[in-house]
Design a protein that fits this description.
Distance between the termini: 78 Å
Number of helices: 22
Shape: globular
Structural class: alpha/beta
Strand content: 5-15%
Strand order of the largest sheet: 2-1-3-5-4
Helix content: 55-70%
Largest sheet: 5 strands, mixed
């Protein structure tokens, strides 16, 4: 079977098949669920009825990330209309494109049979599929990171002694800057590249003119941009906590690969392969050692920063770490001379990945009714519309007084649903002296605060629970 897979035509057929399935899984049922709270904020920021400057101001108070992603979403809304369904297509599209860009990156690093394995791993990675269907920046970060690494490795293969700039170095500069404008954590990639350049200079006495020119240009951008970004945004989310001891047992691999078992297997395989080829990396100092630097610093820098200042590490913030993890597993597996070990690793990865997918909504939705993982706002609103009472208030006790924009963002989203579904519902404030009204609470955000209202003035007549939603029918006591 394995020998047959070495047939060039079969490899091409399987490659196309894996890519098509990966793209299909990203687009299928893309807008099945309503937007989650963070997506609602992005949707509010990208409102096409306001100016770009107003959207930028909203981004500064509502997001902890730069404006690029919401800027692109706003353009899509201007072209295709202001609908909650529009924005997720950007995330899905760039996630699909990332399959292709990572394949080209793999071929640039090592053009062998590992290409088929990397296509499989990226196409069927549940973490990447999940975030491809969210109106958030993370799939864009993955794509831009893969592109900057692609042109970095292409630049390394050029004649570095004759010129200071080339088309590959120019693209590298552009995509590195765009990635920083998408998420500041991508500076870690740039730092890993600088470290490699320093090591090569001191150990091999080599100066890469193309890389040095690129580093200078990008560094100038960062020097001017980073202080501006930090002054104008709140980059430290209050909900993040420093990783617990459990984190150090798998370093988020359980989240990256969908289960603790699958995460541990990939973690052990990666560690085994890096250890197995340690002499190759240390002796040759080939550019792919940057992938190891990137994995290490993606954890080390945020963790140390968290201990010194504020916790900032979350799995999706370092989504780009899956690029070096998957490439190293694919590349080094096919560097193994022991065929039995190589085939065992390939077989184990494929079987466990496919087996895990059967337990995920991504596949289960073809066999049974798809469960909802996000708040079911549309269902809750339709049930309100069918009741005798059409007044709705939203419990926002989870937000601090300075976070009034959260209330505005949610109301904006609800108005869009009400308009789209043609519902007869009126949004009111919780302190409005209405005789009867529904009180909606987001249980994932409010937790125990869903009962925070004046019980001397209001009485609960009915109560319903949906996914992440608590709905109460309230009577005003005169």
């Amino acid at each position: 079977m394995i020998k047959k897979l070495n047939n060039k035509n079969l490899i091409i057929y399987f490659s196309f098949f894996f890519i098509l399935v990966g793209v299909f899984l990203r687009f299928y049922n893309l807008n099945y669920e309503n937007l989650w709270f963070d997506e609602i904020v992005s949707y509010w920021i990208a409102d096409p009825k306001i100016s770009f400057f107003e959207s930028y101001q909203r981004n500064n108070i509502g997001e902890g990330t730069p404006f690029l992603f919401n800027f692109l979403i706003k353009i899509l809304h201007i072209i295709f209309g202001y609908s909650p369904n529009v924005g997720r297509y950007l995330s899905c599209t760039v996630s699909a494109l990332s399959i292709i860009s990572i394949v080209f990156l793999m071929k640039t690093i090592k053009n062998n049979s590992s290409t088929l394995l990397i296509i499989f791993l990226v196409s069927f990675n549940i973490f990447l599929i999940k975030y491809s269907q969210e109106l958030r920046v993370y799939s864009l970060v993955l794509f831009l990171s893969s592109m900057l690494l692609l042109f970095y490795f292409r630049m390394q293969k050029e004649n570095i002694d004759e010129k200071y700039i080339s088309i590959n170095s120019l693209y590298f500069i552009v995509f590195q800057i765009l990635s920083i404008l998408a998420h500041p954590f991508t500076i870690i990639i740039f730092g890993s590249i600088i470290l490699y350049a320093i090591i090569i200079f001191f150990l091999k006495k080599k100066l890469n003119k193309l890389l040095n020119t690129s580093i200078i240009i990008i560094s100038i951008f960062i020097i001017f941009y980073l202080p501006f970004y930090l002054i104008n945004t709140e980059p430290y989310p209050s909900w993040i906590s420093q990783p617990s001891l459990k984190f150090y047992t798998n370093f988020y691999f359980s989240k990256f690969f969908g289960s603790r078992i699958l995460g541990i297997v990939h973690f052990i395989i990666l560690c085994f392969l890096i250890f197995k080829f340690r002499k190759k990396f240390l002796k040759d100092l080939e550019p792919s050692i940057i992938l190891i630097f990137l994995i290490f610093f993606s954890y080390f820098i945020p963790i140390i920063f968290g201990y010194l200042y504020e916790p900032i590490l979350a799995p999706r913030y370092i989504i780009f770490i899956l690029i070096p993890i998957l490439i190293l597993i694919s590349y080094l597996t096919f560097e193994l001379k022991e065929k039995k070990i190589r085939y065992f690793i390939i077989f184990l990865i494929i079987i466990l990945t496919l087996g895990n997918l059967w337990s995920e909504t991504t596949i289960k939705q073809f066999l049974e009714a798809r469960p909802n993982h996000k708040p079911q706002y549309s269902i809750a609103l339709k049930n309100i519309n069918e009741s005798k009472y059409n007044k709705l208030a939203i419990n926002m006790s989870f937000a601090e007084k300075k976070d009034v924009h959260f209330n505005i963002a949610i109301n904006n989203y609800f108005k869009q649903i009400i308009t789209k579904e043609k519902l007869d519902i009126k949004l009111i404030k919780i302190n409005n002296d209405e005789n009867y009204f529904w009180l909606l609470c987001l249980t994932d955000l409010n937790r125990s605060l869903c009962n925070t209202f004046d019980k001397s003035r209001f009485k609960v007549l009915d109560e319903k629970n949906y996914n992440s939603i608590n709905l109460k029918l309230i009577k005003f006591l005169n």
